[in-house]
Structures are given as C-alpha cells and as structure tokens.
Amino acid sequence: MQRYRRLRRAMTDSVFLGAFNFNEEETYEAGRFSNERVKAQEEAASTASTAAATPEASRDSTKPTTPVRTTVMLRNIPNNYSREMFLAMLDEQGFAGRYDFVYLPCDFYRQANLGYAFVNLVDAAAVDALWSVFDGFSAWSLPTAKVCQVSWSGPHQGFKAHVERYRNSPVMHRSVPDEYKPVIFKNGARKNFPRPTKKVKAPTAGL
C-alpha cells in the first residue's frame, strides 16, 4: 500500500509540473509575476485614457478641406452680346438673385465683348445649376453657331477676390462707359461697386 501511494504521488507531481512548463534556469523573484501584471494593467489604462482624452474634432482637424469655388467662366459668348443682354439671359434661365458678380470684358474700340464672362454664384447649388444649363448652351437670342462652355475662373475665386481684382482696375476709370464695367448685386438688386483704394489709371488700350 505504501509503495502504491508513493508511485501515485510521483505520477501526479510529474503531470502537474509538466503542465506548467517551468524554465529550470529561471530564478525565482518574490512578487515578480504580480508586479508584471500590475505594470501591464497600468500601461493599458494609460493608453486608453490618452485615446479618450483626444477629442474627435482634433483628429478630424488634420483632414484637408477643399475650398468651395463659386466663380465660373462662360466661353463662346456671341461677341455682339451686351452686358444687359447677358444679364437678361441669366435671369431668363432661372438665375435671377443667384449671382452677385458679373463681368463681361469688352473691347472699347470695337464695341464688342471678348467672347467670355465671369459670374460668381451665391452658393454651390447655384454653381451646379448654372453649369448644367450653360455648358453646351446654344439658345442665344441672336443668330450664331457658338456653343457655350463653362469652366472654373482662375486664378481669382469668390465675390471678394473679384471685387478686389477690379476696384482699382483701369476698367473702373470714369472715362469707361458703365456698360463695359463689372457689376455687383445683392438679392438680385444691383449695388454700387466699392470705391477704389488708390488712383485709378485710364485704360491705354481697347480693354
């Protein structure tokens, strides 16, 4: 019986030790495994608190933003269109009150426009609508085979940029007829162009 008990204990101990796979060369240190567990828990908690302290907005602030463009250029406009005819066309096509800046450059000597115009729309929805209507437009009020093309204006974009571009330009000189000048609007009503910030030179050529 004693021999059986010693044999059973030896077998049980061998199974127990084999299950944990101890490293015989590893020395024992009091509290080592408990300390390592606490350290791991502290590091995990620190990482979680750092992530929680980072606002979602600050992470999103690193994302690039695309500026909203509102100024378009219309090409292939019949050269005998006046500014008033061009504005009437915009209104007839449903854009009354949806633009705040229009400029149809003209040759003063030939008394004809140069075939293109700049229009600043009040919002992105108006831009999409105008692009849809006028890109490929050919229903002019005068006989012509021209087909309108729409593209982005460059390098200037937006109402303020175009006002600053032209307020000191020779085109705003008092000798230039009003019909050749850029115009601004608010809620569909024409407004006075801002006064120049310096002396405006008279134009020296047809433009």
Order of helices and strands: HHHEHEEEEHEHEE
At the fold tier of CATH, the topology name of one domain is Alpha-Beta Plaits
Total DSSP helices: 6
Give the radius of gyration.
39 Å
Looking at the overall shape, the CATH architecture of one domain is 2-Layer Sandwich
- Secondary-structure content class: alpha+beta
Could you state the CATH homologous superfamily of one domain? Answer: RRM (RNA recognition motif) domain
Q: Could you report the average pLDDT, rounded to the nearest whole number?
A: 79
* Residue runs with pLDDT of under 50 for 5 or more positions: 1-34, 48-63
**How is the main sheet built?**
6 strands, antiparallel
Concise synopsis of the structure shown:
The chain has 207 residues and is α+β, with helices and mostly antiparallel strands. The protein contains six helices and eight strands. Helix content is 38%, strand content 15%.
Describe the structure.
The structure is a single chain. It contains 6 helices and 8 strands; from the N terminus they run αααβαββββαβαββ. The chain is an alpha+beta fold and 207 residues long. The strands form 2 sheets. It has a 6-stranded antiparallel sheet with strand order 6-1-5-2-7-8, with helices on both faces. Strands 3-4 form a two-stranded antiparallel sheet. The longest helix is centred in the N-terminal third of the chain and has 22 residues. The N terminus is likely disordered. Pfam families: RRM_2. GO terms for molecular function: nucleic acid binding.
